[in-house]
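cron nightly-structures :: item 1 of 1
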Amino acid sequence: MSGTKPGRQLLRQEVVDGIKRYILEERLRPGDPLPTEPALCEALGASRSSVREAVKILDALDIVEVRHGHGTYVGRLSLSALVESLTFRGLLSPDDDFQVMADLVDVRELFERGMADRIVSQLSTEQLDALDALVATMRETGAREGHGFVDADRAFHALLVAPLGNELIGQLSMAFWDVYTIVAPHLDGFTQADETETITAHQNIVDAARAGDITGFMKALGEHYAPVRRRIAEARSRR
């Protein structure tokens, strides 16, 4: 594979940095339009090809969004690039995937434990009712009956941190959840006992939150992550 000349890499990175700097200096928000390609070329003193390459890089990172036929806009600034890189790392090596999953479980639990008192105090009655409904969906669908169980599980954890009003925590929590679900099939099957234990733990989380029981809430979180930690440990022992 032929390499890119160092000077070309430097120029492209300068244009990438220039576009990011423009977004910051102009205080643009997600969804705001960027100048046209000719205007960017003039403002940055760069060629059209350099601007196009820079926009492609920023588009891949979700910093900008190219809407064909409409123009270029400030992106959603999601964590899609993080999800892609962590997923690839987890799938790249059979020896690494279990470590990636163990790390992800630790981070997910860390978020929820670290915010336990705020989550419990801020969940509304309507949100608690919605969490109960999601647990009911998990119970009705079962882990081996398609995507219903998984979708309800994801929605449960998204709603759990929603009262914090912290968009970054919400994005990170869901990013780590998404990576885990992609890499997790490398573990052995989810047993009926695991399913029952997981559903019970979710219900205990809701019940503790409704009762304002922070200690019980944190205990239920530990119970929730216990089955997957056990599966990771068992898979590692067979390597």
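cron nightly-structures :: done
DSSP finds eleven helices and two strands in the chain.
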